[in-house]
Amino acid sequence: MHPKPFHHGHQHKPPHAPFSASNVLNFVDESRLDILLAPLVPDAADRAFVLRCVVGEGPLHHRGANYILLTLLAQAAAPGRSAPARPPTAGVAVPMRLPPYLTESVDEGTYPLLLPTGALLDLAGGDQNRLAAMIDCLTDGPSQHALANVIMVALIERLLPSTQP
Amino acid sequence: MSALLQQAFRTAASELGMASAAWLFVREAAAVNGDDGVTALRDDMGRLWPVLDAVGAAWLSGARMPLAQADDVLPALAGVSRLVVIGMESLWLDALLAALPAATPVGLVQHGDPMTHWTRVADNYHGRMTLLQLADFQTWAGPRSVLMTFVYGQSHQQVYVLPSWLRVCGPDVRLQFRALLGWRILDVPLDIYPRWLVAAQADTLTDVRPAPC
């Protein structure tokens, strides 16, 4: 086995050492994200709940990634840069992942945020079955993923040109 | 005498809650023998019942009333559509139910001391309290639902709570309730090993009221 040749201009660094758990989320500023998401989830208590779900609990790397992506998207979609800020008034509910044997017994088992479907329907070419499959993919899995997906779709909708005449 | 007293306290604690029963016993001991009676009660039963010991210590320090003010937690329950309670403390729940809007459903999860006669506990609330099971309390989940338990002590990053709390605050349930509220009902340190309780990470709760001094 020959040693790998040395290439000028390439640094062969040791594998990246992960940040310590106590430091890796130092960049997360929930209050900043809270302000940015206010147009999407106007009620402060609802927003605190949604924020806890996406950046407050769960695996550290997902919390950090959610913060980065949602903050950047929220900045890009901030009022004055696209459509007026308002919460989606139409869309589909995002279910909580309750035990399947309980789902029919729960009255309020959805999160306080709707998944807007306008952009998704365009992407699906108007096909309702495809739309349903997209909704399934976006809202399935842990709420940390599902809610981040929903917020991202809502923010991306604002960035897209309106298809309304 | 001591065994009978232990048995009586356990019976009372199983249906009233440890802190509520402790205030009852401490008051009675004080009524009969003053501070000496409370001191003897602590000496006799304190090691087995650390909450009783702490309430006795509070009495000997001058406290004559429990911290049972609904105002401590009502702001955290504003706009709530359902309240699910983990653990029983009658002094505190009596105060809360008297102050909470009558239309707000309150559920009590039946989990804890096997001696507890849950139907009798609920009957004391004349239909105001719904009994829930560990298997179905999540039917009360929702974005305006709150889980609440009682906090018997706090030190550093830990809270002393009933073991039932650890049965319900798992990562699945946590994201199905708006808040996980701890009602801090003792403000004296637990000097005795807190048997009957467990030390949980404080961040299993999203809010503790009243805030620690």
Which descriptors would you attach to this protein?
heterodimer, A: 165 residues, mainly alpha, two-stranded antiparallel ribbon, 6 helices, 6% strand, B: 213 residues, alpha/beta, Rossmann fold, 2 domains, six-stranded parallel sheet, three-stranded antiparallel sheet, 7 helices, 21% strand
Structure description:
The complex is a heterodimer of chains A (165) and B (213). Chain A is mainly alpha-helical and 165 residues long. Chain A has one domain. Chain A is built from 6 helices and 2 strands; from the N terminus they run αααββααα. Chain A has helices at 30-37, 44-56, 60-76, 118-123, 128-139, 143-159; strands at residues 92-95, 110-115. Chain A has a two-stranded antiparallel ribbon with strand order 1-2. The model of chain A has no long low-confidence stretch (mean pLDDT 85). The radius of gyration of chain B is 17 Å and the shape is globular. Chain B has 2 domains: 2-60; 70-209, Translation initiation factor eif-2b, domain 2 (Rossmann fold, 3-Layer(aba) Sandwich), CATH 3.40.50. In chain B, α1 (2-16) runs antiparallel to α2 (18-45). A 6-stranded parallel β-sheet of chain B has the order 3-2-1-4-7-9. A 3-stranded antiparallel β-sheet of chain B has the order 5-6-8. In chain B, β5 (153-155) and β6 form a beta hairpin. Chain B is built from 7 helices and 9 strands; from the N terminus they run αααβαβαββββααβββ. The mean pLDDT of chain B is 94. The A-B interface holds A 45-46, 48-49, 52-53, 57-58, 96-99, 102, 105-112, 142-144 and B 78-79, 81-82, 136, 138-145, 171-172, 174-176, 178-179, 206.
